[in-house]
Amino acid sequence: MAAGGAGKVSVLLPTYEERHNLPLVVWLLVRTFQDSGIDFEIIIIDDGSPDGTQEVAEQLEKIYGSDKIIAYVKILREITSVLFSSGTAYIHGMKYATGEFIVIMDADLSHHPKFIPEFIRKQKEGNFDIVSGTRYKGNGGVHGWDLKRKLISRGANFITQVLLRPGASDLTGSFRLYRKEVLQKLMEKCVSKGYVFQMEMIVRARQLGYTIGEVPISFVDRVYGESKLGGNEIVSFLKGLLTLFATT
What is the pTM (predicted TM-score) of this model? Predict the structure, then answer.
């Protein structure tokens, strides 16, 4: 791989009501991988979106080809559960992933694919098991959030650092690169849902002795659609944090 990786990269892209964002994020991914000479595949895992996301994914599959560039997996909400989580999506997506490394990211354009080659270079540099995008280190940052969202995110990250001391600067972010076998192992260990899931992945990784590298990223608030962060999610996060503190 031209960007310094050692094998194929599978991107797991969970979606729910992302029909406006999906064509652009896929185009950016394809361009980034092709310009970097990286072997790749994109796996779209949709949660039965009512806005036509599924149809858009099928069109993209036809445009780019279904051999290995686009793989589309339909996950119906009524078949899985109402609480479709990132963890659920990753479990289903990994069944179709053929890459040595797996990138997880959001489909709402908050994570720019341009950072993926940097993840790959970082992985090779330190032979890391996980490379995590961080908003809280180096020139990383957040754009488009109001003060309330920034304070919630900073506060959650600070409390997590104090209680769990995980050795990584951004616990709640969801833009990461994993060795496939490491992600599979972590998925077997993690039990959290929602926002706590990403935090538990890093905590469990440290427990199991996996190495973690970090790459500063710019996080941009979603262009279309609404954020899923609300009061219920904050309460769930705090409960999950306390559970992790008591069990790790």
Answer: 0.83
